[in-house]
Each structure stands twice: as C-alpha cells, then as structure tokens.
Write a structure and sequence with these properties.
InterPro entries: Alkaline_phosphatase_core_sf, Phosphodiest/P_Trfase. It holds the Pfam family Phosphodiest. The chain is an alpha/beta fold and 561 residues long. The protein is 33% helix and 16% strand. It has a nine-stranded mixed sheet with strand order 7-6-5-8-1-9-19-2-20. Strands 12-13-15-14 form a four-stranded antiparallel sheet. The chain has a three-stranded mixed sheet with strand order 16-11-17. α10 packs antiparallel against α12. The longest helix is centred in the middle third of the chain and has 18 residues. The protein is globular. It starts with a helix and ends in a 5-residue tail after the last helix.
C-alpha cells in the first residue's frame, strides 16, 4: 500500500468513525413488578445468602429511610464493612469469598490473569483454580447456587446450580441440565442479558435493558426456593455494580436518581426473601466491594514508556497507531459501520503492521496486544502495569509515578502485596496503585494522547470500585448488635458461613469466622473448630474457544478491554 492509498484509507475510516458520535439513543421506560410471595415455610432451617455485587453502605445509609428491608436487617442484625481484595475486582473478590483464601493463594488478581513467568494471559475462571469452594465440602447438604460469578464449569459436588454469567461462555449452564426446562415451565427463561451499548449511556435505557438480568435471576430465585427445602441457598446479582458504573453521574443532577430506584428494587427483592423465611432461618447479605465516582482515566504504561521504563522492540513503529488514535478510529467503529465491507478489504489488502495498529478503543494499544505480538523488550523494561493498577516494577517506577501525579495534584498510594497477603507468589504483582482513592481508573494502554484523561468522554465508567464491601447477618445465628466496626475482609465470609452451618473450618483458609457477629447461645452446640484437610482441587482448564467467549462477555460488561 503506497502513501496515497494509506491516506485515503485513513480518511475513509475517519468519516465512518464520525457516525458513532451522532448515533441516536433510544429511550425506553420500565415498570418494575413485584414478585408475589406465599407464606413462610415452617420448620425449615436454612441459610440464605444474597450476594449483591458492588453494594455499598455509602448509598444504603444515604437512602436508608427508603430501603425498609435493608434498614431492618442492618439495625436488627449484625452488620459490618468488608475490606475487599487488592485491587477490588469482581472475579477474584468472589473467589476469595467462596474459598476463604486471599488471592495470593489461588493466584488470581484480575479477570484476565497475567503470568509473568511465561508472559501469557488466560481468562480467570473456576477452571484451573486449584482450590475448592466452601460448599463443596457440604456433601450431605441440600444446596442451590444461583448466578454466582466464577462458578463455571460446575463441579461434581454442585447438584443444583445456575452458573453465573461472569466466567461462563455461551448460553446459561445449569446442573442438572433439566433445570433450564424446569425453570422455563415455571415461566423463567434463562439467558445472560448482557448490557447493550444504549443502556451504558442512557439512564432510561439502563432501567429497562440493564436490569433484565436481575429480573430474570430474581424470578429464578423464587422458583428454585420453592423447589426444595434447602440447607444453603446462595444467589448473586450484579445490577448494583452495573448501575454504579453507568448511572453514578445521575446522583449529581437528579433529585430522584435512577441509582436510588435500583437500590429500592434490590430492597424490594430482599423483602420478598424475608417474607418466606422461617423462624429458624438465617439471612446474609454480602457484597464483594463498594462503589464511588470516577473522575477519569490514567494510562501509567504510557508514562513508563515515555520515561524509558517500559521499552518496546520497535517504539518508532507506532505512527499509524497515533494517526488512528487522533482520528478516533477503532476496530469497534469499523465493525459497527461496515457498510462498505471494509473489514474484508482490511483483511485482504492492508499490511499486518497497520492492521495491528488500529486501536481496540480510542485510547491506544492495550498491553495484552503488545505481549501477544512480542512487542515488548523484556530485558530492557523494568516496569509495567496491568489494568486497575497491578504494578510489576522496581523502586524507580514508584518514584516516577509518585512525582508525576503529585505535580498534578493527585494523591497516590502503593499497596505492597507481599505485606498484605499471606503467600509470596512469583506471579503476584509487586504493588497495587490507587489514585485518588480509586476515583481514577488505571488502564494499561500505551500510545495514548494523554497520560491523565479527565474528560468524561475519555472513559466508559461514571463510577468505579471502592474497597468497602457489605456484610449483614440476620437470624438466630447472629447477634442483634447493629453495625460494628471490624477488620473483616472477604476471606472471612467462607469460614463464617461454615460456622453458621455448624461445620468445622479448614486450617488452610486465611480468613476467620466473624465470631463477634455470631450469637454465642445459638452456636453453643455447633462451635466451629479449625481442622486439617486439603481444600485443593483439580479442574480442567477452559478450551481456547471457551476462553474467547468468556473474554467477549467480560469486554461487553466493561471488565476487560
């Protein structure tokens, strides 16, 4: 391709990409319906766990008067904030809740796991994790698992399960297989309702489209709850986290924000669950992290590249990438507006070096693409960062990042994972970087126009994660102490739930039961002890096609680039 052809190709892509800026947004209304519940089932001793991804006391307390069920549970039970994992990423966070282990033990820190030993990426999933989830030891218990992230593929011990959308490829997987048909016969059509592009940008569309997954799974909860007399029923819902990401700015402009309506819908569902509890049943509400506003995006790898700490094999070969980036031309806009069959032309006639330089998004070139294309000079590089601040470096990088951000009035914290966690793994990042208390998202792109991007159009999320999760326990196994300040963290959840179920706790778990929140009299005849048994397990890894499907779903949800 000569220079004239290349310029013509670029200008054509520019015109196509402009269509994206003027695309119309379809607004839809949504009317919530309340599930009708029957009377409580008597004499059933069960533990119900409602997992609410991203739920935060910051908003619960703000709207406590309009959340009667959460208010009653918090004030009449035992509640505390939970310290999440570093960084507070949904996948590893729920795995920590299930295993009772901190991430350094099972060695997963993000949805896209990077192995620095062989410099490879793989999807984080239950496959290949190497450790059991706490319920796998409950052989004689009746257990129902609904929509839990990172539970695909189901294990031999999972007798009744609807695998969660995170970490699962393709259509909904259930066990037994007939469960899908059983739910359909009851009027619940299982499907993974991922977010649409419209629901990510239009609050009204989010209220109709972004809540479909919650509505389907809450209906499934009620059907499955009546299917058997369960010892443990554990379900999870992601709607609060999704709403934080795409509705947070509504808090600044509306007296009746959409986000509050989401919390009220969650509270209504919790009320439905409460209505069916028996007098001996326990209810736990737990979240994996909190949420807060997102001020912008910071590209630390671009800073490291410019300062010579991240060295590429051919750093001067990024001119075409810069051209595409300047014109806001991305692969997604080409695919979206491919009215001229441009993709076929690109595949057949555009040189590979130019094709590889077309950004996935408008922000540059992702670190994973540099790794996969062998573009990094590893011998010359002394630092690099993965998304959400997972930093591999020496001391020079810390000083560089700290000085750069402080001159721009931004606070930064470096969390030394060797000090925070129990296992010193060779695959563990050296530090996690938090900027403005997680108010800035850290992305791993290089060749970006800016290192710090404040413009709301420069990032996809209005809200970002915080490290303050939620725990509320209510029922005969819990104290009625209200909210207490503790040092509780996510690995404490599995041993706490085992204690409520009257089971002993593996010594290998790094968490401890939240004894101060448990009722001594109720647990007098089932005090848990630490016992020695292995919680390791062997599971097959995902196939390459399954990994690709998992990553595509996570990209659509905004968890991966």
């Amino acid at each position: 391709m000569d220079r004239i052809d290349f310029l013509g190709f670029v200008l054509l892509l520019r015109d196509i990409s402009r269509l994206d800026r003027y695309s119309t947004r379809q607004k839809k209304g949504h009317l919530y319906t309340t599930h009708k519940t029957g009377p409580p089932i008597a004499s059933r001793m069960s533990l119900y766990v409602v997992g609410l991804d991203g739920l935060t006391f910051d908003l619960v307390d703000r709207w406590i008067d309009s959340l009667p069920n959460l208010r009653a549970l918090k004030q009449g039970g035992a509640a505390t904030s939970l310290n999440s994992v570093h960084p507070p990423i949904t996948g590893p966070a729920w795995m920590s809740i299930y295993t009772g282990l901190d991430p350094s033990v099972f060695n997963r820190y993000h949805f896209n796991h990077f192995n620095p030993d062989d410099r490879s990426f793989s999807a984080t999933s239950r496959s290949g994790l190497g450790y059991e989830y706490f319920w796998e030891r409950l052989d004689d218990e009746r257990i129902c698992l609904l929509n839990l992230p990172m539970t695909y593929p189901p294990s031999d011990q999972d007798n009744t399960i609807v695998c969660g959308h995170m970490g699962a490829p393709g259509s909904v997987v259930t066990k037994p297989d007939s469960l899908t048909d059983d739910l359909a016969a009851a009027g619940v059509e299982l499907a993974y309702h991922d977010l649409t592009e419209t629901s990510k940008t239009d609050p009204d569309a989010f209220m109709s489209e972004g809540t479909r997954q919650f509505e389907v799974m809450s209906d499934a909860w009620h059907v499955l709850e009546d299917r058997d007399s369960w010892d443990l029923f554990f379900g999870q819902f992601s709607v609060a986290d999704w709403a934080h990401h795409f509705l947070w700015d509504d808090l600044k402009t509306s007296s009746d924000p959409h986000l509050r309506k989401i919390y009220q819908r969650i509270d209504s569902f919790i009320g439905d669950v409460r209505d069916k509890l028996g007098p001996d049943d326990d209810l736990v509400i737990v979240s994996d992290h909190g949420g807060g506003n997102c001020k912008g995006v910071i590209y630390l790898n671009e800073l490291l590249r410019r300062e010579g700490l991240l060295v590429l094999e051919n750093d001067g070969g990024s001119v075409s990438n810069q051209v595409f980036n300047r014109l806001d031309i991305t692969k997604s806009t080409i695919e979206k507006y491919d009215v001229l069959n441009l993709l076929e032309y690109v595949r057949e006639h555009v040189p590979a070096r130019i094709k590889s330089s077309i950004p996935t998004e408008g922000s540059g070139r992702a670190f994973a693409s540099l790794v996969n294309s062998h573009s990094i000079d590893w011998r010359a590089s002394s630092a690099y960062v993965l998304s959400d601040g997972l930093l591999f470096c020496d001391g020079a990088a810390i000083d560089l990042i700290e000085n750069y951000l402080e001159t721009r009035g931004l606070s930064v914290d470096f969390v030394d994972l060797q000090c925070e966690y129990t296992t010193d793994s060779t695959q563990m990042p050296d530090y996690v970087v938090y900027i403005e208390d997680l108010a800035f998202e850290i992305k791993d792109d290089v060749f970006t126009n800016d290192i710090v991007a404040y413009d709301p159009d420069s990032h996809s999320h209005q809200g970002s994660h915080r490290r303050n999760g939620v725990f509320i326990g209510h029922g005969p196994s819990f104290e009625t102490c209200g909210f207490s300040k503790t040092n509780a963290w996510l690995p404490d959840i599995a041993p706490t739930l085992l204690a409520v179920l009257g089971r002993d706790i593996p010594e290998a778990m790094t968490g401890d039961p939240l004894i101060n929140l448990l009722d001594d009299h109720a647990l007098a005849d089932r005090q848990p002890e630490r016992i020695s048994y292995s919680i390791k397990s062997d599971t097959d890894k995902l196939s390459r096609s399954e990994e690709q499907q998992v990553n595509e779903r996570l990209q659509n949800l905004g968890y991966l680039k």
